[in-house]
Amino acid sequence: MAKPTEPRIAVAIMAAGKGTRLKSKYPKVLHEVGGKPLLAHVIAAATKVVSRLDVFAIIGHEAELVRKAVQHMA
After folding, report:
1. Which bin fits 32, alpha (ψ -120 to 50), beta or left (φ > 0)?
2. What pTM, to 2 d.p., does this model score?
3. Has 21 been annotated as catalytic?
């Protein structure tokens, strides 16, 4: 008889906004706090809960710029 396995959990980060209310040319997830983009802080927090392989960022606006900003975290 097979052993039951724990359910696998993933984190999805919604990071596709333009940030128009910030009146900025950058996506809101790239605004920095403490020298790091907001998205980097969220990814770091998520990896304390699940494996980095189970953290997904849904990106849209300026997707390539967002990818480059957090690629070192992959």
Report:
1. beta
2. 0.83
3. yes
